[in-house]
Amino acid sequence: MNNTVPKQNTEEPISKSDAQGDYPTVKLTKAAAQRIRELSEAEDDTKSLMLRIAVDGGGCSGFSYQFSMENDVQDDDIAFEYRGAVLLVDKVSLEILSGSEVDFVDDLQSSSFRVNNPKAVSTCGCGTSFSI
Known about the structure:
Number of strands: 10
Largest sheet: 7 strands, mixed
Helix content: 10-25%
Number of domains: 1
Shape: globular
CATH topology: Hypothetical Protein Aq_1857, Chain: A
Strand content: 35-45%
CATH superfamily: HesB-like domain
Order of helices and strands: EEHEEEEHEEEE
Distance between the termini: 32 Å
CATH class: Mainly Beta
C-alpha cells in the first residue's frame, strides 16, 4: 500500500500519495462524512471502511458513478479525509470528479450518496449517469 490515510477530524481535505504534484479535490458534505463513519462503525472489522467513487463509461448519459465501501487503498488511489471519513478516488476518475461534492441524502424515496459534479452538463433521472 503506497498511500497513507491522514489524521482524522480535519475541516479541509488532506490528500496523500507517493506521486508528485498536487491533486484536485473532491469534497464530502457533513452528511456524507457522517454516513461513511456510521457504516464503518457498524462493521465487525479492525480496519475502517472508506467510500470509493469511480467513474465508468456507460450508463444512460455516457458516464456513471460507481460507489463501494473498501477496506484497502489501492496504488492509484488518492485518499481524501473529511471529519474522520475517508473518500478514495482513483487518478483517472479524479480528472472527471475534480471540484465535485459528495452528499448523502436520506429522503422518502431513497437513501444514497449523490455527486454534485460541476463538470456534468446533463444527468439522467437515475442520478448516477451523466455526461460532460
